[in-house]
Write a structure and sequence with these properties.
25% of the residues lie in helices and 37% in strands. It is α+β, with helices and mostly antiparallel strands. The protein has one domain: Thrombin, subunit H (Beta Barrel), CATH 2.40.10.220. The protein has a 6-stranded antiparallel beta barrel.
Length: 145
């Protein structure tokens, strides 16, 4: 019997932009740090951290968006964590950590989505410019039909 095809559908569009993030485990001041995001949406964020933490661990987050003078705040829980195992052995160990927001204001959700849309627009414009440059190079190199 053939296995059904499965897909990993995301609930929301994600922005792929390294945002500055400060995190702290709720109730444990000794576990905190600063890092960058890999991607984000209005429902969660992926960050790289040097600590292995349990799934469901609750975190306080301060996320810095490029368009804002200060951070937005959210609380979230870890829903998955994976060791980054392709670093050189003498390097520090990092974990890709998926966090689902459990508390975030509607206003801050909108700010995150605005950032996602702005980032996607910029990526699209950059891709258009790259494509146009490739077409122009192709036409310069062309000997004609």
């Amino acid at each position: 019997m053939e296995k059904p095809i499965s897909f990993n559908f995301r609930k929301l569009i994600r922005g792929h932009l390294p945002l500055n993030v400060e995190y702290e485990i709720l109730g444990e001041e000794q576990v905190k740090g600063r890092t960058l995001s890999k991607n984000f949406s209005s429902s969660g964020i992926n960050i790289l951290i040097p600590q292995r933490l349990r799934e469901t661990t609750l975190l306080e987050l301060r996320i810095y968006l490029p368009s804002l003078p200060g951070p937005i705040s959210a609380k979230g829980k870890i829903i998955h964590q994976k060791e980054i195992d392709y670093l050189e052995r003498d390097k520090k160990v990092y974990f890709m950590t998926g966090i689902e927001f459990t508390q975030i204001s509607s206003l801050d959700k909108n700010k995150l989505m605005d950032c996602v849309i702005s980032n996607l627009r910029k990526e699209s414009e950059e891709a258009d410019i790259k494509l146009i440059n490739m077409i122009e190079n192709l036409n310069r190199e062309s000997t004609g039909f």
